[in-house]
Amino acid sequence: MINKKIDFVGIISVTNANPNGDPLTGNRPRENYEGYGEISDVCLKRKIRNRLQDMGEKIFVQMEERSDDGCNSLSDRMKNLVKGNKDKDEVSKMVCEEWIDVRSFGQVFAFKDKENMSLGVRGPVSIHSAFSVDPVDITSLQITKSVNSEPSDGKKSSDTMGMKHRVDFGIYLLKGSINCQLSEITGFNEEDAEKIKEAIRTIFDNDASSARPDGSMTMERLYWWTHNSKLGDYPSSKVHRQITVKKKENVDIPKSIEDYEVIEEKLPNLHLDYYEV
To answer: Is the whole-model pTM more than 0.90?
Structure first.
């Protein structure tokens, strides 16, 4: 368990990449109605889970292609652990002890089969969706596939058309907190907090794809505040507002983090750990 509340803010830069595609808009980068870019909390937690798994931690919600325990579904993974145990308190304790993502983020266990029970676990680590500090420019490219996917008796099949989208450049702010009271329930401790911190600091390591080439997404800076009590010395919203990122006056179209001014305010009696690329 942890006995001091934690708040954190991360500054993410995106250069010619799709940080989080929206399936409802043809996988265009997510943006709100005002044109500000968005990376969903679900996307961020997925990346954090992957990093924790890279660090050797046991993860419940694994990607199918990254499964390291031979289980093909969440139901099988749960079944292998609880082995028919129907005591909700015991099962809640078991899943929290076994998987760091469950004792960190919480998890809803809802299965159709009778061998698994349904229960919910609330986790102490909360992650907000990350939003860009300015509206983002999105470039869309039409692409073609001009090779045969199936045998065609020597004839060339028709080209297949598609679209690829990217954010030209954007600065996004990731925000989150760690709650002491919920950590007492799940058993989340100081060591787990350090692992979450490291996973967020290196969140884009081993995350490259055609939509996000290596180096196109960077955690530029991470601010990690530790309060002096369980309830915290200040509300999380006030702590998060201590970091302001705004475009420099002489910059029209920003191309890098250097085109932005990062204003860091300090609150009395609040310990800050600072990390920069």
So the answer is: yes
